[in-house]
Design brief:
Order of helices and strands: HHHHEEEEEEEEH
Structural class: alpha+beta
Strand content: 25-35%
Number of domains: 3
Number of strands: 8
Strand order of the largest sheet: 1-2-3-4-5-6-7-8
């Protein structure tokens, strides 16, 4: 009987270690932790709020682990997407705010007060860009997922490999062709 009590935790631990790569994104837990870290401008006050709300962390972890990560595993999509916002500085010194959502990204140049949206259409496997009210198709991920069809502003289509070599070819194409008409 004593061996069974030792065997059960060892088995549970081996299952956890063996399936660590398919645990899920823990979107609810990460979203709550992100909110907690930025709740106030004071890191000590945020820490105190985290201590007070520690039962919520346990609830979020359990809900993610049992429900949301299971749904994510079987459907391949996150039920609670971790919407993020990042501030970046470009090589030209401009400050960009990049917000992600379930369909793509909104990129705002805070220096020039200009923005654009990058959106992915799951039905057509296409990325498009909307800038100044004009929407243009950028590229399509082909069915084999090994190639991309790139749409140029001139109306041409170019097929490149979906690998490092194809990305270099795409970069060379973009260096000579502007995405959006000036």
């Amino acid at each position: 009987m004593k061996k069974n009590w030792f065997l059960i935790p060892c088995l549970a631990l081996s299952v956890c270690v063996g399936t660590a790569s398919c645990m899920g994104s823990f979107g609810l837990l990460n979203k709550f932790a992100s909110w907690n870290q930025g709740a106030t401008g004071n890191k000590y006050l945020n820490g105190f709020i985290g201590i007070l709300l520690s039962p919520v962390y346990g609830f979020c972890f359990t809900a993610d682990w049992i429900v949301f990560n299971t749904i994510e595993f079987w459907t391949g999509s996150q039920l609670i997407a971790a919407h993020t916002t990042q501030r970046m500085v470009g090589s030209n010194g401009d400050v960009y705010l990049v917000k992600s959502d379930k369909n793509g990204y909104t990129i705002t140049n805070e220096t020039k007060k200009d923005s654009m949206q990058l959106a992915f259409d799951e039905q057509t496997n296409e990325w498009s860009c909307t800038h100044n009210g004009e929407t243009r198709k950028l590229l399509r991920v082909n069915e084999d997922a090994r190639t991309l069809t790139v749409y140029t502003p001139q109306g041409e289509t170019v097929e490149v490999s979906n690998n490092e070599e194809g990305i270099k070819e795409l970069q060379a194409l973009l260096d000579t062709t502007p995405l959006m008409a000036e």
